[in-house]
Amino acid sequence: MKPKNCLLTLVFPTKVEEHVVALMLRHHKLATGFTTGAVEGHGRNTKLQSMGEQVRGRAKRTQMKVVLNDEDTHHLLAHLKQELGNADIVYWIMPVSEFGSFL
Prior knowledge:
103 residues, globular
């Protein structure tokens, strides 16, 4: 089994959450599990869609975190970029020194 040594974090508009989740489930061999949660995006490049977001100055987003192998991370990103095009998604990759569970 490949070591799970990377944390891939994706942040995307809430309106595409179901589509992104469906794609992740389709690529379950690369990403065996993930976590999602509601976050808010801030910054100059953040696209504020609704009037409420424009007033508040921040955008509703979903954050997805996936722990997987470095090689699989890049394969998964390639699939997501191809399938999602320019869906206003940002991501980053961080090293994971250890991954496990209490099960």
